[in-house]
Amino acid sequence: MSVEEILGFVTGAACVWLAVRQNVWTFPVGLANNVVFLVLFTGAGLYANAGLQVVYLVLGALGWYWWLRGGTDRGRLVVHGTPRAAWVVGLVAAAATTAALVAVLTTWTDSAVPFWDALTTSSSLLAQTMLGRKWIGNWWVWIATDVVLVGLYASQGLWLTAALYVGFVALCVQGLREWSAAGPDGAGPATGTAEPGAVGPAPAPVPDDAEPAR
Q1: Among residues 90, 89, 70, 92, which one has the least CA distance to residue 79?
Q2: What's the gap between Cα 96 and its chain centre?
Q3: 167 close to 17: Cβ distance less than 8 angstroms
Q4: What pLDDT, on a 0 to 100 scale, did the predictor assign at position 19?
Q5: What letter would DSSP give residue 197?
Q6: Run of H or E including 189
Q7: pLDDT digits (tens, 9 = 90+) for 194-211
Q8: How far is it, in rounded angstroms, from Cα 86 to Cα 141?
Q9: In terms of CB atoms within 10 Å, which end of the chain has fewer, N or C?
């Protein structure tokens, strides 16, 4: 168990918990997590997942902006259902990206598990983009992806990271419940805490008990 894996565990758990709570601090914490996992996955031979962290840095910065300025009149973004067109385009793009990455990993790297590495990379990109837009469907994609990643990381001996992703699945389920309760006209962040880059008062909190029966 390396220092990188421990740091990845702590920052990853914090990042997902903050996302569940619709707290924009999820993005700066997530950026730190990306840097840690970039180092960890490169050392484990999971090159597509390592490269994914670089893309996450870009999507994280973009999502940070969207959550603060992507709503009506450049206000904060609220929870929405996922448009049907977004599902179609997203799934087709994920399938095409998976095929392309498998070819790249098989030809130019010694990736331990090229197909699963490529598949989870593509689905993670889709989920992160949907999260940035505050589409509820992002949690379904994260749940499916994280289930596969548990097995992938365990197969590479990354036991702490595998355990982290078991926790992610539970958090994503909670996120699906809370966002479904808050949307499609959600009240924004579920806490009234100060947020990086936020201007003006925080919106009203979403009650913890306002949930249906990561």
Answers
A1: 70
A2: 20
A3: no
A4: 87
A5: T
A6: none
A7: 344 443 334 444 444 434
A8: 13
A9: N
